[in-house]
Amino acid sequence: MSDVIIVGGGASGLSLAQRLVANGSPTVTLVEAPDGPLRPPERTWCYWDADTDELDEAVGASWSRLRIHDADGGVITVDPSPLRYRMLRSTAYEHWVHSRLAGSPAARVVRATVDAVRDTPGGAAVECTAPDGRTLTLHARHVFDSRPLPALPPARTHLLQHFRGWFVRTDTDRFDPAVADLMDFRVPQPRHGLAFGYVLPLAPGHALVEYTEFSRAPLTRAAYESALGHYCREILKLGAFTVETAEQGVIPMTDARFPRRIGPAVSRIGTAGGATRPATGYTFAAVQRQSLAIAAALRDGRALAPRPHARRVLAMDAILLRALDTGRIDGPGFFTGLFRRVPPERLLRFLDGRTSLREEWGIGLRTPVGPMLRTAVELPFLPRRTHPVPRIKESHR
């Protein structure tokens, strides 16, 4: 019997396993899906942090400057020092975590398909099927489950951040490796929601280029490919290029309330536990904070996964999502306005949910106050409704 079982080897499961092993206290079993359709393809995760970071060994690239393009072609370039925007690939992060688990006698990794998680006297049981078809039942005092939810909780607003990206190589140098394009609103805007390009340069002739939308439904693969082709050829003017690999994902942007405890000994973590920032889709940094907090709670004899985002952050996000969904605010204008009017380091901390109430009040005064106030007044009277669940894969946001 382990002290802790972690279900799922994505960003949240790996992060929690590494953090618990680093603390050197509980015995940890990480249950990962075996090779096959349940094991997700390689993904990209991004976050911002200070110049020194414990994940440096796994980070594939980072940028000290960020660029925003408004819909009219204006350019905003910011330096959020001491923060850097960092990118890591899931395979590199998995290897980094597994090397630390392998060096700990208190940790083990089990490859199996999880069929059920249930409470038992004094803990919980995880019922699995091994790759050879054998049935396994694992027991622990605490279980942290990162699997995607079968259905999203009821919400007043439900948008999706959906995207497709190409890793491209160009015949000539087309990218500046020192600057990441965080939002490029020069792409055609959809009738509902907003769209932007996203460029992470890895070398002068190599980059991850993405097309992203915030809207109510994902696109077909053909529509993503068409949008990416237009962005690369007509807006970025890359000239001749080849697509090495592609990745695609969908992230919920919702004011749903995600329950963190689903049994006396079972908690949810990651997106299933509410770690995704509703208004931005960013998850990875919140997962790191959540893992640190869980490790501290277990050390102190508590097991509930702490709230990933403060209540006031979720309240602000609920207002913004509703204002975007109703069209009361112009999405591209809203985000470019923030980058023009708010100091970049403060703005990135705000997008990550790490600002003070005073800082958030100042940022709020730099948004369209009238539409936001109107939305805040009506929000408490709106019903929460269920929405279909798209196929959600962990992503870079």
UniProtKB/TrEMBL annotation:
InterPro entries, A to Z: FAD/NAD-bd_sf
Database matches in Gene3D superfamilies: FAD/NAD(P)-binding domain
Pfam hit, one: Lycopene_cycl
Name under which the protein is recorded: Lycopene cyclase family protein
Protein species of origin: Streptomyces ortus
